[in-house]
Batch of 2 targets.
Target 1
Amino acid sequence: MRMVDIIIKKKDGLKLSKEEIEFFVNGVTDGSIPDYQASALLMAICLKGMDDEETLNLTLAMAASGDSIDLSQIPDIKVDKHSTGGVGDKTTLILGPMVAALGVPVAKMSGRGLGHTGGTIDKLESIPGFNTQLTQEEFIRIVKDIGIAVAGQTGNLVPADKKLYALRDVTGTVDSIPLIASSIMSKKLAAGADAIVLDVKTGSGAFMKTSEDARKLAKAMVEIGKGAKRKTVAVITDMNRPLGKAVGNALEVKEAIEVLSGHGPDDITTVCITLAAKMLELAGMGDFKKCAQLAEGTIHDGSALMKFKQMIKAQNGNEKVVDNPKLLPSAKYTVEYKASSKGYISAIISDKLGVASMLLGAGRATKEDSVDPAAGITLLKKPGDMVEAGEPIMILHANSPSLFKESVNELEKAVKISSEKPPETPLIIDIIQ
Ligand code: URA
């Protein structure tokens, strides 16, 4: 088999066989296929697409390119959850403890943030002492002991994706539905869960800018799940607005504690209850309505907050932050961002808000950057709220006063004020199963 023939076949819009796809993935993984040929095929896939069978074969070949996690020692149905990335998205910190509090094991591997999107691992590491670098044995032991662990990737999971993602990033081939679907699902399959709930974001802060594209991506991933015999459900949620009121690592942990205590913002609480209910439904805990009630109940009876505390302790973090969030890192300097005119806030564009937060130190521009756990932005107002000219809309948090100027410049582009109240749009756009 020759790589050049596979590239030409896809360039001509033809369907690749399982063997051709495996040849490509294996060659990328062992380095025998050079980057220029891999990139050429990625571009051809981007332009000509792949059908469901090709996408499934690509996913399975990628999932098999490295280690996979064996969760069989943990009894019961293990349900994983994945979000396609957002701004202010702290859902894992909230729904993980909710689901685990109901006895459904959560063995969750998460990533770090890059660009305008945050990562769960960075958020958890803002808790003093919290260890996200668990060995596979520690990870499984903690899930067996307390029902939940959230850690960075252990082992050599899906090396093909690491190489392909790095190439896609620099060859303009990220935004392809078969490539995104196979990248996400190969990691989920290798991470070993029996069932998967996907939170597919749509809007300015997301990969999929329109709900039509988000639906296509969701359907592609649900089809892969079906083909790989893992129950998979996708919830499409709105990322045209930030989720909750906090963006930035420690600020988001604090907000997660507020949601788990029953006084968090409505939008993030609703998204978490919906996603948790879908996870519980896949774990066989009843229909969606019953599972939503169960999930909400874990906030009211305090069991989810207790589970979060247990998880922090089990991963060596200072669990006292739950009762006293002042123990979380806080920034030396704060600045108010004020409304330029009177009116309704018609939009806070999520990706620009994410960039503004990154510029304060909360995120990474490149993979090598470190993050400041204390930095970020707290929203005092949300889209739809009325403001007076000069009224504070946000508080910016940073450890160096020199960081505010550039961040404020970005916020000027993020915040839109209008004389008309913006229409209310749904937060949960669709559920694909
Ligand atoms: N997240 C991933 O893991 N892969 C993609 O291709 C896009 C988002």
Note: The longest strand covers residues 195-202.
Target 2
Amino acid sequence: MAKPVSRFVCQECGAVTSKWAGKCEACGAWNAILEEAARDEVPKGLSGSKPGRRIDFVGLEGSSAPLPRLTTGIAELDRVCGGGLVAGSCLLVGGDPGIGKSTLLLQAAGGLSAQTAIAYISGEEAVDQVRMRAARLGLAKAPVRLASATNLRDILSSLDAVDGPQAVVIDSIQTVYADTIEAAPGTVSQVRACAAELIRLAKRRGFILFLVGHVTKEGMIAGPRVLEHMVDTVLYFEGDRGHQFRILRAVKNRFGATDEIGVFEMTDRGLSEVANPSALFLAERRGNVSGSCVYAGMEGTRPMLVEIQALVAPSTLSSPRRAVVGWDSNRLSMVLAVLDARCGLALSGNDVYLNVAGGLRITEPAADLAVAAALVSSASDSPVPADMVVFGEIGLSGEVRAVAQGEARLKEAAKLGFAQALVPSSPRKGRGAAPAGGSLSIRAVGHLQDVLGLFQRA
Ligand code: TYD
Ligand code: MG
């Protein structure tokens, strides 16, 4: 009998090697390689042996009806999923511990239970704990089938029953284990094998499958990245635990747009939807203080206004501090360098703090101009007008570049009562000049130097 071969798998990236090493060659992670028993790979040398069945090719156009979608009753979640959940689809929900994944999915399960049979399988909490949570969420009466289980074999047999559910929540995939695999639950081979089996069953039976996945310190869904390839939709639930806002972000979606986000607020009765996030993010803003600027951003198809705060203070340190919350620190360094080299505003002797108020994370380069305005405003101690919104990308020569969806940003600003907008003047390819502002008065700037001119102290 052949000796069982073992192999070494990086628990961070899933790379396989034949020898143990302290550092993974593929992703550079230290101490992440573990020995695992090799599983059966695809048999080699298929070609030439018994021929396979011929597959039928079809045209791209077909008469299949649009995929029916189930709605959870949580509008923010449905929108992030592309307008509801498609039967047979698998969704991976990632996020830091304690951010609210179990709460969100229990609420979604409650909403779905009104329309279809749904099972909630928790490997993390005992039945009583989930019941307590359900009572707190006002869902104790919802017909959700609840179980606490971790053995894959048991879970598969229960779901594959005649009266099996149409939607299933597995909380979390890291707690599920297959007894055919030696590795501990949560390791790459366990997570991958369990997810693959569950997904196969979901596709075969056509039920909706939610998998909860933990996130590592580095912000990856723990264990294999391969999990992200296996599922149809990857949602990240993020937010700052110090704030009550939670953002649900689709990073992959086979059934809808990705960059869509849903905004929630964590209350003592669970997550409540935030239909008008701009108003919420601006709620605590104090007008007419220097260093504060309202950025008109876009999150997916949704415009969102947020306050960007900067503090520029004299530093006593030899290398002054640069602290950023909610934005990319490399991008801040770039804006500071452009201010220095192209506009003569040197802040190298100052500590610089930048904060996106409310706990939102901004990834768009379109926030450059708003950041620059907040920095200049703080450095010169003259406020950005309280009724002004700002957006625009900054290039390395200091030019202010046009950004997408200018009209939508301005419309949101007008809706929330803003009166002025600081926008790029450069025309966009195939479009007119600076966006027409409707009721807003538009100040178009072509270079960062023009922004400095706005903040000269009288
Ligand atoms: P949970 O859903 O357990 O997080 P995860 O599954 O992502 O680990 O959320 C836990 C946190 O949410 C916990 O700190 C308590 C808080 N919470 C509320 O504030 N209100 C609520 O109604 C519930 C159910 C939880
Ligand atoms: Mg949980």
Note: The chain has three domains: 6-37, 69-275, 280-455.
